[in-house]
Automatic annotation (TrEMBL):
Keyword ATP-binding among record annotations: yes
Keywords: ATP-binding, Ligase, Magnesium, Metal-binding, Nucleotide-binding
Cofactor requirements of the protein: Mg(2+)
Protein's UniProt keywords contain Metal-binding: yes
Matches recorded under InterPro entries: FTHF_cligase, FTHF_cligase-like_sf, NagB/RpiA_transferase-like
Record family assignment: Belongs to the 5-formyltetrahydrofolate cyclo-ligase family.
Organism: Candidatus Dactylopiibacterium carminicum
Protein name as catalogued: 5-formyltetrahydrofolate cyclo-ligase
Protein origin, superkingdom: Bacteria
Gene3D superfamilies: NagB/RpiA/CoA transferase-like
């Protein structure tokens, strides 16, 4: 049985409010732990093109860790999503610390005029998540459409704080599970329905 849209909306609001209320000192501590776990994950997966999201509504700010990763080797690329004007998939555009940005229709900064990038790995913010890799996003379905459109499919890593962990997310038919979950407790591969784990 799946939760209704109203139930999911209420849960989403509760989880976002909980994240936004996280005390600054604890947020900094958790963020530092996430940064420390992110670098070995990226190195171990041997990717060179990473898509991520600008921090929004108290989400984890990954920029310092990602810029350090970027500086460690040539030919690495970072990309931010650009939200389409109509329903569709996100488009990822090259980003660096001095890239010109403009706010999209949600008020989130997005690159202007930089080349398109096909990420090998996506760092996906989560409002809520479970051990299987199902997430509660913002309800727009952008990431699910993006993952369906990108071929080959990128590795996906859900990023959030442990306070967003749920026993189970009531997955909908179009929901695509993440491969990894990264929190202040470290990085774990997601458990698949067949009892296996994500690659």
């Amino acid at each position: 049985m799946q939760a209704s849209s109203s139930d999911r909306s209420k849960l989403r609001k509760t989880l976002i409010a909980r994240r936004e209320a996280l005390p600054d000192a604890l947020r900094m501590q958790h963020t530092a732990a996430i940064h420390a776990a992110l670098r070995p994950l990226l190195e171990g997966l041997a990717v060179s093109r990473v898509g991520f999201c600008w921090p929004y509504r108290g989400e984890v700010d990954l920029r310092p860790a990602l810029l350090a990763w970027l500086a460690a080797a040539p030919r690495r690329l970072l990309a931010l999503p650009v939200v389409p004007d109509q329903v569709g998939a996100l488009e990822f555009r090259h980003w660096f610390s001095d890239t010109p940005l403009a706010s999209d229709r949600f008020g989130i900064p997005a690159p202007i005029g930089t080349p398109r990038v096909e990420p090998e790995l996506l760092l996906v913010p989560v409002n809520g998540f479970d051990a299987r890799g199902y997430r509660l996003g913002y309800g727009g379905g952008f990431f699910d459409r993006t993952l369906a459109a990108l071929q080959p499919a990128p590795i996906t890593v859900g990023v959030g704080f442990e306070l967003s962990r749920l026993t189970q997310v009531d997955a909908q038919a179009h929901d695509r599970p993440l491969d990894w979950i990264l929190t202040e407790d470290g990085c774990q591969p997601c458990q698949r329905e067949d009892g296996g784990i994500a690659p």
